[in-house]
Amino acid sequence: MTNGLGERWRRRGGRTVRLVLAFDDIMEFALALLSVPPDELEALGWSFADRKRLLDHFLRSGKAAQRVPRDALGQSLITLRLPRRDLAPLQRFARRELPKAASNAAMLDRVLRVLDDAA
């Protein structure tokens, strides 16, 4: 039996971190991830699979958002749980690429603060 608990735990990313963000901020961050062209993905050192894995963390927030009434959804705080190994790439992206795609500076400040606190 070679697939022990420790090996499966490391393969899934090890320890998790919690990010608590407003739903609107999560969706804007996800849209910014989607808007990165292939040449900039290479500059970040990412593959399409890396971007898809990171996007999947954000898209999982939709399950938590389904329980929130529509009129309160935008500012509802949603908790994202992601492997600690994915935190550093998201921080690099947020500092390097998110300012180009963000629609407001307040969202950028909130996201950077949450990422820094989680690190």
Q: How large a portion of the residues is in β-strands, by DSSP E?
A: 5-15%
The span between the termini is 34 Å
Radius of gyration: 15 Å
Order of helices and strands: HEHHHHEHHH
How many DSSP H or I helices? 8
- Identify the quaternary structure here: single chain
Number of strands: 2
Low-pLDDT regions: none
Helix content: 55-70%
Strands ordered across the widest β-sheet: 1-2
Give the biggest sheet.
2 strands, antiparallel
What integer is the average pLDDT?
Answer: 81
- The outline comes out as globular
Based on helices, strands and strand pairing, what is the structural class?
mainly alpha
Describe the structure.
The chain has 119 residues and is mainly alpha-helical. The chain is built from 8 helices and 2 strands, in the order H-E-H-H-H-H-E-H-H-H. It has helices at 5-11, 23-34, 38-44, 48-59, 61-65, 87-96, 98-101, 105-118, and strands at 16-22, 77-83. A two-stranded antiparallel sheet has the order 1-2. Helix 2 packs antiparallel against helix 4 and helix 6 runs antiparallel to helix 8. The longest helix is centred in the last third of the chain and has 14 residues, at 105-118. The model has no long low-confidence stretch (mean pLDDT 81).
